[in-house]
Write a structure and sequence with these properties.
About 15% of the residues lie in helices and about 30% in strands. The chain is of the alpha+beta class. It folds into 2 domains: about 180 residues, Probable inorganic polyphosphate/atp-NAD kinase, domain 1 (Rossmann fold), CATH 3.40.50; about 130 residues, Probable inorganic polyphosphate/atp-NAD kinase, domain 2 (Tumour Suppressor Smad4, Sandwich), CATH 2.60.200.
């Protein structure tokens, strides 16, 4: 297991003052918006924050988290415009796929600089370029910290599952774990709810937590024999019709062999983690996180055989879009978007790098499933299980 304390961060710099925003739009006080970030801190331990800044109470929550961590000798830092909005030290983010700097949901996936050949795997960036994030070291930079002072322990997210997915982008690139505090409704991926935030922060200060590695899915888009886009997802890669009135005609292949062809609204390739998300809504089964497999779920397919498939983690799933059909849209975790021309092949396989989630309790997945979805667990004669 990777040691979270061995992954450096880039040097904090003072963030520019954010433009004043009306209280009604974000709910954060004017002082939080207008004040520049504080100077670069001197403590050795750091935690990178990714927050849902649209919440009306986020300023108060972040202030509490910052003060609590500071009492334990840990600096709370942020990336992009979030730093100025929240009044935190600023870490520039250089990730080509990162959206923590406030990029819109339609931000494109990382595309290759030129033609490349499909090689059966899906790197984070095309042509072998290294990906970086706010939690990644600028080790050779004159502005970087050469010693332990440059180490980030983890990424902390304050929000719902969408915020955690955003934080996972930073955490996976840097190889550090991500801890989610739920400020929303279900928050299936998050570890604790907001009323237990102090419990979570105390565990971070004492380094008293476990790491759960979650399978990811890598993907490459092949068009005319060339790789035109690549990316990854923690929950799912979805291929969907680009126009509402159209039907997407596809062939689903596993390990190079055709399984079924049909018209549909789309096809999902989900991880066990994502089996409780979009794939669950589309009628797929729930996979326990310890299952090493990928889930293929057609969405509203017009076919007699269009059932969800569970394939091994070593298998390659390919969705071939009809060359004479319509354009499609691909989304990784519903965030990183790419257009897919007709005739393209989307290759998906188990990711080369996992996402590491911080776990503070020994709650079994079964109990989490029942609690988050409020499932009835009464058996015969009303006996509880």
């Amino acid at each position: 297991m990777t040691n979270p304390s061995t992954h450096p961060v880039s040097a904090p710099v003072a963030a520019p003052a954010a433009a004043p925003v009306a209280h009604q739009s974000t709910g954060i006080t004017a002082a939080s918006h207008a004040a520049p970030a504080s100077p670069a801190p001197s403590r050795a331990r750091r935690v990178l924050l990714v927050a849902h800044t649209g919440r009306p109470d986020i300023g108060r929550i972040v202030e509490h988290v910052r003060d609590r961590l500071a009492g334990g000798g840990i600096d709370l830092v942020a990336a992009g415009p979030e730093a100025a909005e929240l009044g935190l030290p600023y870490l520039p983010s250089g990730s080509p796929e990162s959206t923590s700097s406030g990029a819109p949901r339609s931000a494109p996936l990382q595309a290759s600089d030129g033609p490349g050949q499909y090689d059966g795997r899906a790197p984070d960036t095309a042509q072998g370029r290294a990906a970086t994030s706010a939690a990644t070291s600028v080790a050779d930079s004159a502005d970087g910290f050469p010693g332990d002072d440059a180490r980030a322990e983890l990424v902390l997210t304050l929000g719902g599952d969408g915020t955690l997915l955003r934080g996972a982008e930073e955490a996976r690139i840097a190889g550090v774990p991500v801890l989610g505090i739920n400020l929303g409704r279900v928050g299936f991926l998050t570890e604790l709810d907001a009323d237990h935030v102090d419990t979570a922060l105390d565990a971070v200060i004492r380094r008293n937590y476990r790491i759960s590695e979650r399978l990811t899915v890598d993907m490459q888009v092949e068009s005319n024999g060339n790789i035109v886009a690549s990316g990854w997802a923690l929950n799912e890669v979805s291929i969907e019709k680009a126009s509402r009135e159209r039907i997407l005609d596809v062939i689903v292949e596993v390990d190079g062999r055709g399984v079924s062809s049909f018209g549909c609204d789309g096809v999902l390739c989900a991880t066990p983690t994502g089996s409780t998300a979009y794939a669950f809504s589309a009628g797929g089964p729930i996979l326990w996180p310890t299952v090493a497999a990928l889930l293929v779920v057609p969405s509203n397919a017009h076919a007699l055989f269009a059932r969800p498939l569970v394939v091994g983690a070593k298998s390659m799933v390919t969705v071939h879009v009809d060359p004479g059909g319509h354009e499609a849209v691909l989304a990784c975790d519903g965030r990183r978007i790419a257009e897919i021309p007709p005739g393209s092949r989307v290759h998906m396989n188990a990711g080369a790098e996992p996402v590491r989630l911080v776990r503070l309790t020994d709650e079994p997945f079964t109990d989490r499933l029942v609690r988050k979805f409020s499932l009835p667990v009464h058996g015969w004669r009303d006996r509880r299980h």
